[in-house]
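Continuing the series of single-chain predictions for the mutant panel. This is the parent chain; the variants come on the following pages.
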Amino acid sequence: MKKHAPLVLALLLVTLAAWAAGENAPTFSRSRWIAEQRAWGARFSAGVLPADRERLQELVDSPGAQRPARRQPAPHFTRISNDLLAPDGGPAEPETQAEPSVAVDPQQDNHLLAGYQENRFDTGGARALAYAVSRDSARDWSEGLVPGLTLASGGSHERASDPWVAFGPGGRAYFSSLLFNETSRPNGVYVSVSANGGTTWGEPVAVHTTSAELDDKDSVVVDNRSDSPFRGRVYVGWDTVTTDQQQPVRIAYSADGGASYTPFVTLLARGANIGVIPLVGPGGVVHAIWVRFNSNDAATLMTARSEDGGDNWTAPAIIAQLHTAGVPDSRTADGLPSAAIDPRTGDLYVVWQDDRFSPGVDQVLLSRSSDGGDTWSEPHLVSDGPLDAPNFTPALAVNGNGVVGVAYYSLRNDPGRHTFADEYLAVSRDRGQHFASTRMSPLAWDVGFAAVADGGFFLGDYQGLAANRKTFFPVWIATFLRSRIDSSRPEPDAFTWPLQVR
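Parent structure:
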């Protein structure tokens, strides 16, 4: 026994040292960890210019902030969200919705699914993610919390973010989300499935999880093509900030209706890659579009494709260089793309915000590929109006007749070009060559009463737009209605106003 005493003592000393280190180690903070990763160039969201500005609470009643004129609402202008979570006294911002996504069932085109954040945290994520279902072309909606995600919805994670929705064959619905904690490391990308079009939801299924790294910016699409050998396959994209100071973009898929997912494929490992969007074209060819930031902070739109159902991908190719200014006091898409495919021709479209045509002020630009992503048109303007007015956070869809629609926020009706925003929808009937914009919001709203993220006013890093054969369904965030907690203040909600294009 005596001969083992040195070994026992050594083990005891190691145990005590580990215990002491654990006791004295600072509590993990996701916000602090993200700040450390930003120092080497990782990208988690858009910047806010200038930083650390407080909410401008006095704008509503300020004589210097003249509210732009109203327009008469149409009968189908609809509020979708209804504040499902009561305030809990914590740091989350009550009565705040942000970052909506929307999809149309390709087999039943009056059936829609939307998703959005519910009660946003300034430092990232939300208390829960909400879904809303309409079966009458967006006139009426039923709403609920996606179950099993966060503590607020019966799950185990502290926060959720980046809701993205899609439909598959048979009305099967998919809801992807990013789940994480502020005070511990486990995080990952999950997908919830509804076999009845969004009425009820199963437990979330992990696509990828990690405790050493950080997943971000998920998205999901389903192959609905009747000419595809992979019909029904579910593709999920995201990026990961790794321990070796890289931010690769990744894709995984499910061939069993979302019950399980393959190991991921890395499309590009170098640089800071973010915002990947998978798309399915004719024959089941899968395309991915994202933005890459290099070491000198230059940004490039990238693309790759797979012709074998997501197992192998082409080398990444460049779509266009980005020139983004951002919107002062707001966190916007800031270069994150939106993309869509013409279901008839396979033409690929991508839009983003960019200031190359109006230095210092972002507009919405578009590029198109008619050869499967091999070559792309020169970027050209989608947004119209005065070039000194920012237009930002675009969303893109193509309807069943090949009409291209682009939804975006605009400050054109604010004389001060600051926080009174409107929703616009631009439509092109000539494959994206020319656009005509329609003001979708009945009046401008004050972005200064939206949620706050990273010190900036936050409607979302993206907004929602989907289309059926003739109609576009934009879903956006606005502060039209008064808070039930404080009637002197507006609150942000999700709204829609369909636009039929003949």
